Amino acid sequence: MPSQNIASASPHVLIFPLPLQGAVNSMLKLAELLCISEINITFLVTEHIYSRLIRHTNVMSRYPGFVLRSISDGLPDGHERSGARYMEMFDSMKYNSKALLKELLTCGELEQGGRGPVTCVIADGLMSFVFDVAKEINISMFSMRTLSPSSLSIFFSMPQMIQSGELPFTGDDLDTPIKSVPGMENFLRRRDLPSFCRSNTLSNPSIQLFKNESQENARTQGLILNAFDDLEGPVLDHIHASCPNIYTIGPLHAHLKKKLAGTSYYRTASSNSLRKEDRSCMSWLDSQAYKSVIYVSFGSIATVTRDQLMEFWYGLVKSGCKFLWVIRPDSISGDGEIPAEVLEGTKERGYIVGWAPQEEVLAHNAVGGFLTHSGWNSTLESVIEGVPMICWPYFMDQQVNSRFVSEVWKLGLDMKDTCDRVIVERMVKELMIERKDEFTKSADRMAMLAKKSLSEGGSSCSNLERLVKDIKATAGVVHKEQQ
Ligand code: UDP
Q1: Per the UniProt record, which EC number(s) apply here (predicted)?
Q2: Residue 435 confidence (pLDDT) above 60
Q3: Are residues 474 and 383 part of one domain?
């Protein structure tokens, strides 16, 4: 029977994601999984994220042990916090949020309601200032990376790439092979590295950030990844060399769904969305034939120019396939309106929404393909539903994810660095018609492996059990030290 004593002796984890939709998504899912395992959670986000999340999520009302808190990122209200100005947020948080976080963790405020002190911190591995604070106040820390393990492996290899002269690039041949990332020697090219590597100077702030912060992950007690072993085996072996204790517990969204199914929390689906979903596309999908629709979405950050949008649109229409297309109101750079001809000309074959319930869309049996920007969440959401992909990566890990989708996992086609209506049309036909059986077969096989990892005794399921045990042990450590 829970008593005040037991409650205050229970583990209390502070989770702090990067202020981005994809990162908030997966860390909120981790938070839910830990809540189900009776661990108290303080989910800390920047005030900017808080104001958007609070409008759409229902997670606070689902778990008694869950508390949502916010902290300033130190930037003024009107700051864009996106695109080219995104990097300013890292600097600002490092210098402004660090002191605020220390104050929050030590002032006793988080202990209200008999929750006891925070016994452990889980933060995005790109925010090493959180680990500095955890070390200063002597609590356990775990890092989580919400990007793909393959990109992480690249970040860990950056010192070797610099040493061998592969970074920075000289000349402009993007097909030059990259040989310094273990296990990827046979297929990695310059164009598959994160796009910030295309800079011709090592002083590029992103190169510095990802190279330096990634080395910090080794300081933590363990590294949590949204991945499963059968998908990323050889890459994980390489990461092990830097971080010996890895918890691969993904695909997180499906893992959560599976765990919720047997609990009293399974009343309504939770939403982690920072935007309002337009669910009308679900009834449109209901009226479409089996696997006949290609779903098109470039995630929460990527933008397209008006010209690129028109290339996609002509390519989609000319392919003859049905399409469901997410065009976020803020996704067209420059002149921000969806052109009238696109809206009008789409009526016959397509459906456009500003934001879709993507997990449900990908699980719908009318969806037979996904034209994606290869964000890691989107990739995993597609993998577990067995939906083949056409990849049009925008930045960060997306460039290498798309290479893995096409060359390693054989789950689709890579369209990176082009945006041409003829290529769009050709690839949509290839994916949806000409090579449909081949891609569906490999996508079904990978989906089966993903599901196996989540079943009793599967790798992700066992790793989550181990993580919960290790987190619970942190409460014991704190309380022993306090006695
Ligand atoms: N997403 C969604 N509705 C949309 C588009 C995207 O719910 O219309 C979700 C998607 O399911 C995924 C996240 O937004 O979980 C995007 O994350 P991802 O890592 O794929 O890309 P990012 O937005 O970080 O570039």
Answers
A1: 2.4.1.-
A2: yes
A3: no
Looking from the CA of residue 398, the nearest atom of ligand 1 is 25
Ligand 1, residue 376: give the atom nearest the CA: 19
Ligand 1 atom with least separation from CA of 381:
11
Domain annotation covers residue 405: yes
Q: Are residues 303 and 419 in the same domain?
A: yes
Is the same domain home to 446 and 458? Answer: no
Q: Which of 394, 425, 381, 449 is nearest to 194 (CA)?
A: 394
- 173 found inside a domain: no
Domain range for residue 285?
280-450
Distance 254 CA to ligand 1 centre (A): 15
State the amino acid at position 173 in one-letter form. D
> Which residue's alpha carbon is nearest to atom 14 within ligand 1?
299
C-alpha 447 to ligand 1 mean position (Å):
19
Lowest mean pLDDT among 26-30, 58-62, 65-69, 306-310: 58-62
| pLDDT tens track for 132-173 | 999 999 999 999 999 999 999 999 999 999 999 999 999 989
Give the residue, by CA position, lying nearest to ligand 1 atom 18: 375
Q: Kindly indicate the confidence band of residue 83, based on its pLDDT and cuts at 50, 70 and 90.
A: low
Are the C-beta atoms of 40 and 116 separated by less than 8 Å? Answer: yes
| pLDDT for the residue numbered 267 | 55
**Total domain count, the chain:** 2
Q: In what order do the strands lie in the sheet with 66-71?
A: 66-71, 40-46, 12-16, 120-124, 140-145, 223-225, 246-248
